[in-house]
Structures are given as structure tokens and as C-alpha cells.
UniProtKB/TrEMBL annotation:
It is a multi-pass membrane protein. It comes from Staphylococcus delphini. NCBIfam families: feoB. Coiled coil: none annotated. It is found in: Cell membrane. Mg(2+) binds at residues 20-21, 23-24. It holds the Pfam family FeoB_N. Residues 2-162 form the FeoB-type G domain. Belongs to the TRAFAC class TrmE-Era-EngA-EngB-Septin-like GTPase superfamily. FeoB GTPase (TC 9.A.8) family. This is Ferrous iron transport protein B. The chain crosses the membrane at residues 281-302, 343-367, 421-447, 453-473, 515-533, 545-563, 575-592, 604-629, 641-661.
Length: 665
């Protein structure tokens, strides 16, 4: 059986970057906290074993679901060693977790990350001396570039991370005597090895909820008796604060011998930039300006011209060559129609938007890796407090711009349960990449001169609706106490080309995968419904099953401005995946992508097109998002609410857009 190691550290110290370097895999990274919310497993290079990437935490006493994942892992899982990655520029704060891991007693290796950043700030760390003090391997690394990862792998392969004695901080004679009694009171039948018993006793005194769940009722009663006796005969009233104070004194004394700081703290470039980007008045306009520029590049300057070239390929050479090959092979005409009018028209109708999606993902990755995304959360915190949330909820919302599913999962980092649930329920209003093909088609047809502005308005509308729903929930079914938003602002940094490329490709690859699965399947089903009817196969379109379905729904959406049965029919497969809406249009209208533009322009006006995009933005989440909501809540009540109430909101807002707009246009 291969060795298993886990990688731990504070949020945003480069854990996942080092995980990727050590395993050769790629997990989502970002220059902000809260990116990893669940454990991930990879195979170490050089056949050194398995590596588990755990969520970033500041302390082993968990206060949120993602932090509970880490403590539960240490208590219940078997592994051979730990890799603790530390931000060298913030070594004092990071060492609070390191000391707890040393007290836990499993073999530990420290990866001293961002040593280059620390040096630029004038911070000097004698890691060799620190290694001698702690008696564990310490390896300087730069996780973003992979520097030092080979040394970490060699240390693991050469068994340098071997059995180590648990760290014993002296908490005073009285507390030490209590810890000894608590350790003796622990049953020898616990799954956890006895070298971890002192750790359990310390964490009990810190009221660690994971440890309280781990111990049986009889043991807890013995612990309560011993603790009560201690408090009766000692002057230490608050054991928790006493332990934390002793631990911090140990850290201060140890680091004073190995860390040298610059004499005078100078204002770094990061602080000067923050003064502008997080300004209480200018912060939001700057953010909106950046998003407008990104959409302008995506839809006007770069993305759309590239999409037009890909569109010409799908509608011309690919279709023509496919038809020629099928004619030579004598393929049955119905199958030819399935391939050309179903698969190529359906899947190709979505794939033509890949350039726009990749361009958008590139710039989103640029904002993430530069450190700006964390600042956006700070900017929005002031506004979100008025709507029953705080800036921490905005992080899952930002992630939702790529895909709502990881955005919903990212809500695990929110400590307050009702706030977490509210965030999950509003996350689907974020305009994910799946809606982008719909926007791309309609803004190109009806808003050619203002594409970026129209798309930006939809993204802003999604945020506004989410905040209003949050306010309503916080005043009714999800009333809660006000929580405090605390986030670490990472330093600004120039993103590496490798990181940007991998991040962009991984996000774009998911879109391509959906084209080969959901969109392919949806295209085939839509074609079959369009090709068949009660009277048989190859029926006139007005006698098809799809026409029957669309015609039944069309009267319901007529007040919204898009009354054709074809439009109505596209909304149903949109529940499977929002991209299928465009592929369905290409199949239903039975035209090439170039002709699709002309056909759509006859079924919509500029006003009804905007109303349609508002409806697509807000109506029922896709199947994958619904499944994520069910998993994260977990409740059928909240899941069904998440399915139904967005449809009502979408209908009402689209109705208002079209009916009010009709008076002015």
C-alpha cells in the first residue's frame, strides 16, 4: 500500500499550487482565500504515494464546514505524514497552525513558501536554525513556479518525513498536571494512536467541537469532572485563553531567534494600490469599469471575430465535407439529417462561442491570480451588509461567474449557517459561462454597437437580484445575527503565463466536455422530437412532438415578448444545461449558424431579445446546479425552493422589462 500524505496550511498560502507541482495535476488556484473547500487527492510524482490537499485553515478548532474537514481528517483518517506550507512573509501568524500540527504528533515537513516575497520585504528567515530547533525538515519553496518541489518529493521518497515526537509546550505546572490526568483518562481503545492523546487533551480544553464529537460520553464525563476539580483548586479561570497565551509566547520566543524584520515598516506598493482600488467611493466604479473593458475585449475586439471564424468553419467546410463523406458511404438520409441538422448544428452552434468563453476566462483568471478578487469582496462587503450578507458571501458569487456549481460549494467557508444557506440560494443568479452563448448570439444581432454594456448590465442585474433576495430571506425565513467579515488581502502579484493558461484551459475544458455530453445528448433528443410526431417520422415541423410541446408553453411566455413555439421549446432543455438553448435553436430553426442570425432577428426585437436574456439569466438553475444545492443544503425543501422561486422572479422581471419597455420603444 502506497504512502499517504496531507498538505495543510492557512488560506491562500499556496497549498494548492504546491499540490499541483507535486502531483503534476491541476486544481483550481486563486490569489485569495477560500478556493479549496474540500479535500482533493492526487498521485505524487516519483511514485512517492498519494497527496491529499485539505482546505486552508487558521486553527484546528473549526468554525466552518471546510475547517471541519481538516480536523475530522486528522482524527479519523490514516496517513503517513503532513506537509505544512507556510507563507514566509507571514510566518508568525502561520505558526499558530504549525505548532498545533506539531502537538498533534504526526511526521511533519514544512514547505516555506513565498520566500522571495519575504526577501523583498526585508524579512530574513534562518530556516536551517529553525529546522534544528524543531527537529523536522524545512524546505524553502516557491509554489507558483514549482521551485523546491523536487526537494520536497526527495524528502518524502527518502523517508525524511518519518516518526517524530509530538511537540510539548509547557503550559505551567498546574495545567501540565491536568493534561497528564486527562491523557490517563482516555481509553486505550481509541482508533487514534496514543502519541496523539496529549493533543486530544489540549483540544478538549480549547473546546474543539470536532474533538468533543470524537470522544464518547463516558470519557467526556471523566474530563468534565477532572476539569471542574482543577478550576476548584486553581486560579486559572479561563483555560482556553491560558493555553493560547502560552502557545503565542512559545511562538514569539522561537521566531525571535530565527526571523529578522526590517527596522522600519515602509508602505508597500500593495497598500498604495489598495488605497485606490478599495476606496469607498471609487472602488465599485473601478470594478465596473474593469468588467466593461473585459466584456468589450470578449465580445467586440477579440472574442467575436475569432468566433466568426470558427462559425464559418462549422457552417461551411465541416458540414460540406461531412455531407460528402456520408453521401459516398450511402448513409441513410435520416441519419444524415441527424448528423448535420442535429449534432453539427446543435453542438457546433455552441462550440462557436469557445473563443469568447476562453477570452473571458483568461481575464477572470488574471483578476483572480493578481489578488484583485479579494479586494472586490472587501468593496462589496460595505454594500452587502445592508442586504443581510457580508463580503465573504461575495466570494462564492464571484466563483459562480465561471460556474454556479463550484460557487455553491465555496459557500462551505461561511461560518454562519443561515448566511451560508442564503448564499447557496442566491448563487444561481450569478451569470455563469453557460449563459454566455445566449448573450453572444443576441447581443451580436440586436446590440452590435453596445455588446459589452448590455452583457455588463446582465451581470449587474444578477448581482442586484441576488442581493434583494438575500435581504428578503434575512428578514423572513432566514433571520440571523450579524456576522463579521474578515479576509486576508494577499499581495498583488504578476500572474505567471503558465498559471493563466492552465486556469483558462481548465475552465474552458469543462465547457467543451459539456458540449460532448449534455449538449450532444440534448441535441440528439431535440432533433428526435423535431423529426418525429404522433403520425410517425420525418413529419412536417408543425406536426412534431417538439411543436406540440412548444405550442403548449408559448401562450404562457407571450406577455414576455417572445411568443413563438420555437423559443418556448428551447427553454425546456435549458434546464439540462443553459448552452443547450442555442443548440436547440439551431436545430429547431433547421438553418446554418449564419442563417440562424437572420432567423432569430425575425422572431425577436431588441426589446424582446433583452427580455429573453433576462429570463435566461434568472430562471430555473441547470440540473448540475440543482444537484449541488441538494448536496450542500442537504434538504429537498430548500432544493425545491431553489428550483421554483427563480422561475417566478425571471418571469416577473422579464414581464416588467418588456411591458414597461414597450411604452418607450
Amino acid at each position: 500500500m502506497s504512502n499517504a500524505y496531507c498538505i495543510l496550511g492557512n488560506p491562500n498560502v499556496g497549498k494548492t499550487s504546491l499540490f499541483n507541482a507535486l502531483t503534476g495535476s491541476y486544481e483550481y488556484v486563486g490569489n485569495w482565500s477560500g478556493v479549496t473547500v474540500d479535500k482533493k487527492v492526487g498521485q505524487l510524482k516519483k511514485n512517492s504515494g498519494h497527496l491529499i490537499d485539505l482546505p486552508g485553515i487558521y486553527d484546528l478548532v473549526p468554525i466552518s464546514r471546510d475547517e471541519t474537514v481538516v480536523t475530522d481528517y486528522l482524527l479519523h483518517e490514516k496517513f503517513d505524514g503532513m506537509i505544512n506550507i507556510i507563507d514566509a512573509a507571514q510566518i508568525k501568524r502561520n505558526f499558530n497552525l504549525t505548532v498545533q500540527l506539531l502537538e498533534y504528533g504526526a511526521p511533519l515537513l514544512i514547505g516555506l513558501n513565498m520566500i522571495d516575497v519575504a526577501n523583498k520585504r526585508g524579512i530574513r528567515i534562518d530556516h536551517q536554525r529553525l529546522m534544528r530547533q524543531l527537529h523536522i525538515p524545512i524546505i524553502p519553496v516557491i509554489a507558483r513556479t514549482g521551485k523546491g518541489s523536487d526537494e520536497v518529493l526527495n524528502a518524502l521518497a527518502d523517508r525524511h518525513v518519518s516518526r517524530q515526537r509530538p511537540l510539548k509546550i509547557h503550559y505551567g505546572d498546574a495545567v501540565e498536571n491536568l493534561l497528564t490526568q486527562l491523557v490517563k483518562a482516555l481509553p486505550t481503545t481509541l482508533p487514534l494512536a496514543q502519541r496523539h492523546y496529549r493533543f486530544l487533551a489540549i483540544q478538549y480544553l480549547l473546546n474543539n467541537p470536532a474533538v468533543l464529537r470524537y470522544l464518547d460520553e463516558e470519557t467526556l464525563q471523566r474530563f468534565e469532572t477532572l476539569t471542574a476539580q482543577f478550576k476548584q483548586f486553581n486560579t486559572i479561570d479561563d483555560l482556553e485563553q491560558h493555553i493560547l497565551k502560552c502557545r503565542q509566547q512559545y511562538i514569539d520566543t522561537m521566531l525571535a531567534e530565527v526571523v529578522t524584520y526590517p527596522d522600519a515598516e515602509r508602505q508597500h506598493l500593495t497598500e498604495r494600490i489598495d488605497a485606490l482600488l478599495t476606496h469607498k467611493i471609487l472602488g465599485i466604479p473601478i470594478f465596473l469599469g474593469m468588467m466593461w473593458l473585459i466584456f468589450q475585449i470578449t465580445f467586440t475586439w477579440i472574442g467575436t471575430p475569432l468566433s466568426d471564424q470558427l462559425d464559418a468553419f462549422f457552417g461551411g467546410p465541416l458540414t460540406d465535407q461531412t455531407v460528402n463523406i456520408m453521401n459516398k458511404l450511402g448513409i441513410y438520409p435520416a441519419l444524415q439529417d441527424l448528423v448535420t441538422d442535429g449534432i453539427i448544428a446543435g453542438v457546433g452552434g455552441v462550440l462557436v462561442f469557445i473563443p469568447q468563453i476562453l477570452v473571458l476566462f483568461f481575464f477572470i483568471s488574471l483578476l483572480e491570480d493578481s489578488g484583485y478578487m479579494a479586494r472586490i469582496a472587501v468593496i462589496m462587503d460595505r454594500m452587502m451588509e445592508k442586504f443581510g450578507l457580508n463580503g465573504k458571501s461575495f466570494i462564492p458569487m464571484i466563483i459562480g461567474f465561471g460556474c454556479n456549481v463550484p460557487g455553491i460549494m465555496a459557500a462551505r467557508s461561511i461560518e454562519e449557517e443561515k448566511e451560508r444557506l442564503t448564499t447557496i440560494l442566491i448563487a444561481p443568479f450569478m451569470s455563469c459561462s453557460a449563459r454566455l452563448p445566449v448573450y453572444g448570439l443576441f447581443v451580436a444581432i440586436f446590440f452590435a454597437q453596445h455588446q459589452a454594456l448590455v452583457v455588463l448590465s446582465l451581470y449587474v442585474l444578477g448581482i442586484v437580484v441576488a442581493l434583494l433576495v438575500s435581504w428578503l430571506l434575512s428578514k423572513t425565513v432566514l433571520k440571523k445575527d450579524t456576522s463579521i467579515f474578515v479576509i486576508e488581502l494577499p499581495p498583488y502579484r504578476l500572474p505567471s503565463i503558465k498559471t493563466l493558461w492552465r486556469s483558462t484551459w481548465e475552465k474552458g475544458k469543462g465547457f467543451v466536455k459539456k458540449a460532448g455530453t449534455f449538449i450532444f445528448a440534448g441535441s440528439v433528443v431535440i432533433w428526435l422530437l423535431n423529426y418525429t410526431g404522433p403520425s410517425g417520422i420525418d413529419v412536417p415541423i408543425d406536426q412534431s412532438f417538439l411543436h406540440m410541446i412548444g405550442a403548449a408553453i408559448a401562450p404562457l411566455i407571450t406577455p414576455l415578448g417572445f411568443s413563438s413555439w420555437q423559443t418556448a421549446a428551447t427553454l425546456i432543455p435549458g434546464f439540462l444545461a443553459k448552452e443547450v438553448i442555442i443548440s436547440s435553436m439551431a436545430i429547431i430553426f433547421a438553418v446554418s449558424e449564419e442563417s440562424l442570425v437572420a432567423t432569430v432577428s425575425t422572431h425577436f426585437t431588441a426589446l424582446s431579445a433583452y427580455s429573453f436574456m433576462v429570463f435566461i439569466l434568472l430562471y430555473t438553475p441547470c440540473l448540475a446546479t440543482v444537484a449541488a444545492i441538494r448536496k450542500e443544503t442537504p434538504s429537498w425543501k430548500w432544493t425545491m425552493l431553489a428550483v421554483t422561486y427563480p422561475f417566478v422572479i425571471a418571469y416577473v422581471l422579464s414581464l416588467l422589462v418588456y411591458q414597461i419597455g414597450s411604452y418607450f420603444i
